[in-house]
Design goal:
It contains no helices and 15 strands. The chain is an all-beta fold. The model has no long low-confidence stretch (mean pLDDT 87).
Length: 262
């Protein structure tokens, strides 16, 4: 499926005009314009959704370090799942040239990139607990580990021109590697006389490799034009490439909880 789109606009008051053309199918598209396009607007919006899950099974034991501190070392396997879905929507609102002219259809391109990464590894950690007073308890936990990760990406473009919709599939990507995991957390718990348990918690998570999809522009097509025409020449060159890269990710959180016993 696909189509060819062409539009010509003129303005008798200013004596200027513009022309637009597009050719598209499920393998790609081409959009060109010439003339006065100063009133043609192009807007881009980006929406990204990130979902992560973390599952760890620990084998742990506790013992007294001294009269004040209790230590509970732990060791176990871990599984993490990280999903990123990014949708980039670009809309070209063509200028009709005159308020009396009929409305021209918009040119809309929506690019959706889905990335799923799974981590399998092991974590070593320990909890350190101390009773500050009879009604106050401090707990600090630290963890560190290593995990293998496997990342898979899929991409597609949805093009809409003059009520004609075309889906352009993209090439899948893959990346494997090793990541470092670390975490530090702390809890301060107060045991109130009325039976309430109030806890203030804070944590910091570190992940050395959080994959993401990026694009690189490697060139531009040969476009020539004058006042009345535009010419594009090419031999099937690739002007944009995609790859999976990774960077570190840090997440921080705090919480306040209260439990009342009756």
């Amino acid at each position: 499926s696909g189509g060819i789109f062409a539009a010509l606009t003129t303005n008798g008051q200013t004596g200027v005009g513009s022309a637009y053309g597009a050719v598209f199918d499920d393998t790609g598209f081409l959009f060109l314009g010439t003339g006065d396009n100063s009133q043609t607007a192009m807007t881009t919006s980006i929406d990204e959704k990130i979902t992560t899950t973390n599952q760890t099974l620990f084998l742990s034991t506790g013992f007294s370090l001294n009269e004040q501190w209790t230590v509970s070392p732990r060791l176990g396997p871990t599984f993490r799942d990280l999903e990123r879905v990014t949708t980039t929507r670009t809309t070209i609102d063509l200028d009709e040239g005159s308020d009396l002219a009929a409305n021209l259809p918009n040119f809309t391109l929506a690019e959706k990139t889905s990335l799923k990464t799974e981590y399998y590894g092991a974590i070593l950690g320990a909890d350190f607990a101390q009773k500050i007073r009879e009604d106050w308890l401090l707990n600090v936990g630290v963890e560190a580990g290593v995990a293998k990760f496997s990342s898979r990406s899929s991409r597609s473009n949805a093009l809409s021109v003059a009520d004609t919709n075309v889906l352009i599939p993209g090439r899948g990507l893959q990346r494997d590697g090793t990541a470092t995991i670390a975490r530090i957390a702390g809890d301060l718990t107060h045991l109130a006389q009325n039976g309430a348990i109030i806890t203030f918690s804070a944590y910091l998570d570190y992940l050395s490799d959080a994959p993401y999809v990026t694009s690189q522009i490697t060139g531009s097509p040969a476009v020539t034009g004058g006042g009345s025409n535009v010419v594009l020449t090419g031999n099937g060159e690739t002007f944009r490439t995609y790859s999976i890269e990774s960077r570190s990710m840090i997440s921080v959180g705090i919480s306040l909880s209260a439990v009342f016993l009756f």
